Amino acid sequence: MSEPRRIADLATLKAFGHPLRMRLYGALKMRGTATASQLVDDLDDGTAVSLVSYHLRKLAEHGLIEEAERREGGDARERWWQAAQETLRIESKDFRDSPEGAAAHTALSRVMYDQRRDHYLRFLEQRAGWSAEWQDAHDSSDFMARLTPDELKDMTAELHAVVARYTEHGRTADPEGREMVGVHLYAFPMRG
């Protein structure tokens, strides 16, 4: 997988901003690799394999996903897919100078928030099914801090570095006892 990718062009932003494409991308990040048929099973909402295949090709056209190695024993006609990068970065400064770009960035941000909220709500609904250790390890916090823009950037960079360190450790350590963990961070100015 390649280095983190910054989405700075409107066409890619719009392609990624489609709610189903974002769900498919997220499912690939969770699974590592998958076929369209497997992703349809993950969606569990009646979406047709042909529609999923179409959206996977659109993600691939913009370099967001790529073909993965075929798995042994699988159907040779099926294509395997994976995320093309470990991390995507989308910055408002790349889109704020045009009304269309700003609107597309806001729309994407709303879809991302909705999907992250849904993941957390699913955890809350299923929390009793997790072990006591996982229930006790989970966190939901909020903080208020008076910061300058530069301090906010510095704090965000430090938090990203901490997450990156744990992510890398999880990739190389013994997989026993490990689960995929969602870490959602929002840091923004507030008034009133």
TrEMBL record:
- Pfam family example for this protein? HTH_20
Every copy of the HTH arsR-type domain together lies at 11-93
What GO MF annotations does this protein's record show?
DNA-binding transcription factor activity
- CDD domains documented for this protein: HTH_ARSR
What's the protein name?
Helix-turn-helix domain-containing protein
Species of origin:
Streptomyces tabacisoli
